[in-house]
Amino acid sequence: MQTKKKKRKNKDTRYFWLFILPWVIGFLSFTLFPMVYSFVVSFTNWNGQNMRDFIGLKNFIQIFTKDRTFWSSLKITFKYILISVPLNTVFAIFLAVLLNKHLPGRNLFRGIFYLPTICSGVAMYITWAYLLNGTNGYVNVLLGFLGVEGHNWLGDVKTALPSILFMEMFNIGTAMTIVLAGLQDVPTDYYEAARLDGASSFQQFFQITFPLITPVVFFNVLMAIIKGLQIFTQPYVMTQGGPAQSTFVYGLYLYNTAFSYGKFGYASALAWVLFVIIIIITMVVMRSSSLWVFYREEVD
Asked: What is the pTM for the complete model shown?
């Protein structure tokens, strides 16, 4: 009997590794190996062609002491995060609360708001670039019908980054869906008891709804911060970092350093600095969760 159980266990183990093998190969080939390789390259002056000369910490020292573009691109990236994360989080919660109500056509609107997330990012950003075009963009055409003078949205230093932030508000379908799932998990008994006590809708939201959905809000905020720190495609497609580098985010600087200037060693160092920044910010946000994230057993 024990022999049969042992054979079956060994067979299950083999099947487990057989089914997980494609993922393991993909992880080792396309994630772990490139990470280790880029870490090694970050200590060299490799330009993608010649021999890799080991230069120690010179790349990292230059980043923090001599590279003004590093600081300016990091500043723009943080500016993007500080505006987009709160704005999109609040908007996602607002839409989720609205679409959680028993209103006619709510399933249709759920699909409409989620639709942009399944579209190709590049295609969507190109479309928005046409919409915000300063000469014949449809946004300016619509404003013209309303008697309002159009504007060069992506060509003005003052409006280029806000235009990207505005566009990102239409790409919150995933965050909205996660919050919506959290709302549907809130027990209706809490609302019935609150109504009996005379609590208004405003009080019900801040005393019941929001505390119980803080775990999903926390998840959305954390993912939005990590995604925002790695922003690249939007400014690359829509503005190429302009005008006057007003949208020249960190990811775009890293890309240009590697593929426009051939400084793969320096770009690898920039990538690892970004990795450390993401780790530090993630740890800070996770430590802060004890102050504002509540779980069901804590509020029952």
From this structure: 0.90
DSSP code of residue 28 = I
CATH number 1.10.287.110 given to 66-299: no
Task: Name 172's Cβ contacts closer than 8 Å, sequence gap at least 6.
Answer: 88, 91, 92, 95, 113
Amino acid of residue 51:
M
Residue type, 266: Y
Preceding amide of 243 cis, omega within 30: yes
Measured between alpha carbons, how far is 29 from 26 in angstroms, rounded to an integer?
A: 5
Neighbouring C-beta atoms of residue 294, cutoff 10 Å: 16
pLDDT of the residue at 9: 67
Q: 255-273 pLDDT, tens per residue? A: 999 999 999 999 999 999 9
Helices (H), the chain: 2-27, 33-41, 58-65, 68-99, 106-118, 121-131, 138-145, 160-168, 173-183, 188-196, 201-204, 210-229, 233-238, 250-255, 264-292, 296-299
Query: Cβ contacts of residue 110 below 8 Å, gap of 6+?
Result: 99, 177, 180
Instruction: State how far the Cα of 85 lies from the Cα of 78, in Å rounded to an integer.
Output: 10
Which tokens go with 251?
């990811």
What pLDDT sits at residue 2?
Answer: 58
193 Ramachandran zone, left/alpha/beta (phi>0; psi -120 to 50):
alpha
Which residues, in sequence order, are CB contacts of 59 under 8 Å at separation 6+?
A: 42, 43, 45, 265, 266, 268, 269
Structure tokens at 34: 């490139």
Structure tokens at 80: 């993007």
